[in-house]
Amino acid sequence: MKILFQQNPPGPDPMLFVWLGLTLLVGALIGYLVFSTIRKNKEEKLKQTSSDIIAEAREKAQQTELDAKDQALKIIRDAEAEIKNRRSELNKEDDRLVKRREELDYRFDQMQQRENNLNKRQSRVDKRANEIDQLYEERTAELQRVSQMSVDEARTILLEEVEKESHADMARIIRQIETEARETGMEKAREMIADAIQRVASDKVAEVTTSVVTLPNEEMKGRIVGRNGRNIRAFEQATGVDVIVDDTPEAVTVSCFDSVRREIARRTLTRLVNDGRIHPAYIEKILEEERKEMDEDIAKAGKDAVYEAGVHGLHPEVVKKLGRLKYRTSYGQNQLAHAVETSKIASILAAELGADVEVARTAALLHDLGKAMDHNSEGTHALLGAEFARRHGVNPKIVNAIASHHHETDQESIEAILVEASDAISGARPGARREDLEQYIKRLKALETVANNHEGVEQSYAIQAGREVRIIVKPEEIDDYQAHVLAKDIANEIEQTMQYPGQIQVTVIRETRSVSYAK
Question: What CATH number is attached to the domain comprising 397?
Fold first, then answer.
């Protein structure tokens, strides 16, 4: 029997394991190398990123440092510029103080020089007076010896000649003084403003005492009068005014010296006419409403004036009293507008003269406060206004300026003089005030009369609406020096005897004509 032996399958090849181990080793080595490469790349990338971040941070730090340095330099430059400006201002202020000191020294020297000149001139005048006395004695003796005139007649002739010579000397001295004043005018202008301009101030009185109410028709007059005059009597008694119902078509006149009371009555009557209901009870109702409204209007007018003038800190009662001036006029000029204008002028003059601007401004605004007082009060408007201001805590310098702006009390400060001057300027400017024809003609005639009353005057003419008077003198009686003295004398007489707004120019004309005939 044949026995078949099955051969065992061959075992794994040892080389296969060797190759498999080598492959795994190589794969592990390659994986390690790849992992190492990737890790190295990541590390390098991280290092690069950190380097970029550090570089960027350094750049930002450098930029911040540069900005801080620029800012510091800018602050240093601004500080240096401010220091330079301050130093420049201090230098200018120092220069101004030095210049001011030099001006004061120069002015002091000029005053001393003028005092010396006045002393010398006084010596010459005394010497001249002694010479005149000596000449008088010699001429008296000569006249008595040569002629048979009496002592009185000789004295008369001698006095006339001496007076003529003295007038010539006076005119020459006046011209010399005026020449010196013109030469030093720019330096003395600020000192002369207050003294030269104050003489034109003058008191004014309101002329407007009536108001006209327009009616829609003539029948309304009968309704205003009422049955047996009941309505008009009730209206006049309640308002304190006079209602004039005359032949004027479609109009009645309200008359009263108190401008506020007259304005309240005019408003009340206007409302009654527009409403049509006119009887005593309704009159009293409308009148009470208009009085309240008038009080509000007066207070508002005072506040507006104070604001426009730039004055602060006044008592409310003073402001309210000031508002009443809105319904007062003087020669057609509204008194409240005049007060505001005077305040502005006074503040400008005070600033130019170096005076207290606030005191001058406030005093000028309140200078006519007394014109708003009740007419039952006794005293002038300047003193009444000053007393009212004093009772309400106004500065004593302002009170004095109010009381003295018409020379009823002594002026104690430069601001008081400025208030008077500003009041005159506001009233004298062209177009500020008006006067009626009769007073205008009287003033022109008075000017010519003053001029004609002087010896040697041939003719005189008031021209330029009374702003100038031209005087023609006889050349055989008045010489050039006497003409100059005559102009001064007439100007002084006009100042002392007349009231006028602004200033009046006095012009003396002397003309010599020689006439001959050929035959």
Answer: 1.10.3210.10
